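[step 3/7] inverse_fold.run input=structure_tokens len=325
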């Protein structure tokens, strides 16, 4: 494992809107890291991003890996996954984006590579690191007696006329809301209600997906996910109901740059202590497995032979309970 006795040298892989608006500013501002360089699939974009933040653009991934202790990755998931494996095998710690990959096999290779190399990993599920929500999630996860809950994440990325910078993303266009915002919903539901043991899924308008989940705690939950909602109908809401009453996710989260800074803190702490973070690559794998189960259920429903409940609890790499606590 790479030494981090002084400032940890972190490199950024990716130059798109998420890297430009969140990753790079947070890395440049963080007092505990040395933002050593940027690599991207478009060299001109890497050069511009590096210049904007006083760091170096690299043309070669391996050269950048040789000059850093950790990597932050802001790339499409199926490009992220093999690069994360490559970085882990080089002994570099991993600050990943969600979803880790779009197949369980791809996500498993990342988690296995991190474990084999003994490197730390953190997956940036925004709500788990945002100042306005992380304490609320921890409080609800420590509360007993939950009965049911719902998570609604209705975005307008692909709604006509919104001009979202993320609408040009090919992987979002292909995989839709299930894979883009589904991880956010699961990142809250799993620590509160426990792992998913069974699920059903149904299509809605546009790319909208409805999930119904059973959890190890005995509670049930639902999630409604969309990137094609009309702007007037967009918004995020999570509501939990149980013996402790009705609790809703705070509406004020804080700036994304600050949330990513907290994720950097979490990675540094995992490196220092050797204790895996709850949102590590193994948890990212479990989220990927559940999303893949939902995809299978949706395909079956479209074919007219949907099972009553996809056996999500039979996934071979289900994370131990403490990973979702």
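[step 3/7] decode complete -> sequence:
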């Amino acid at each position: 494992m790479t030494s981090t006795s002084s400032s940890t040298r972190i490199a950024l892989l990716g130059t798109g809107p998420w890297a430009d608006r969140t990753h790079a500013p947070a890395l440049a501002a963080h007092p505990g890291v040395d933002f050593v360089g940027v690599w991207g699939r478009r060299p001109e974009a890497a050069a511009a991003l590096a210049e904007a933040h006083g760091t170096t653009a690299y043309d070669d991934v391996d050269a950048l890996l040789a000059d850093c202790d950790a990597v932050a990755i802001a790339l499409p998931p199926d490009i992220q996954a093999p690069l994360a494996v490559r970085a882990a095998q080089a002994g570099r710690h991993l600050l990943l984006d969600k979803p880790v990959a779009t197949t369980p096999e791809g996500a498993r290779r990342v988690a296995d590579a991190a474990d084999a190399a003994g490197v730390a990993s953190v997956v940036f599920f925004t709500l788990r690191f945002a100042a306005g929500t992380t304490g609320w999630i921890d409080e609800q996860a420590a509360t007993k007696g939950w009965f049911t809950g719902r998570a609604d994440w209705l975005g307008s990325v692909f709604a006509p006329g919104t001009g979202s910078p993320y609408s040009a993303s090919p992987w979002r266009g292909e995989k839709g809301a299930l894979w883009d915002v589904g991880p956010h919903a699961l990142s809250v539901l799993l620590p509160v209600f426990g792992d998913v043991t069974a699920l059903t899924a149904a299509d809605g308008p546009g790319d909208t997906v409805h999930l119904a989940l059973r959890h190890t705690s005995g509670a049930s939950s639902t999630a409604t996910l969309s990137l094609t909602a009309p702007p007037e109908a967009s918004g995020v809401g999570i509501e939990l109901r149980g013996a402790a009453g009705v609790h809703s996710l705070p509406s004020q989260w804080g700036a994304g740059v600050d949330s990513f800074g907290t994720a950097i803190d979490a990675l540094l702490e995992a490196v220092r202590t050797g204790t895996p973070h709850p949102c590590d690559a193994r948890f990212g794998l479990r989220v990927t497995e559940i999303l893949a189960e939902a995809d299978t259920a949706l395909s079956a429903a479209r074919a007219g032979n949907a099972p009553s409940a996809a056996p999500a609890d039979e996934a071979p790499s289900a994370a131990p309970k403490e990973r979702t606590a």
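[step 4/7] annotate
Residues 1-5, 314-325 have pLDDT under 50 and may be disordered.
The longest strand covers residues 146-154.
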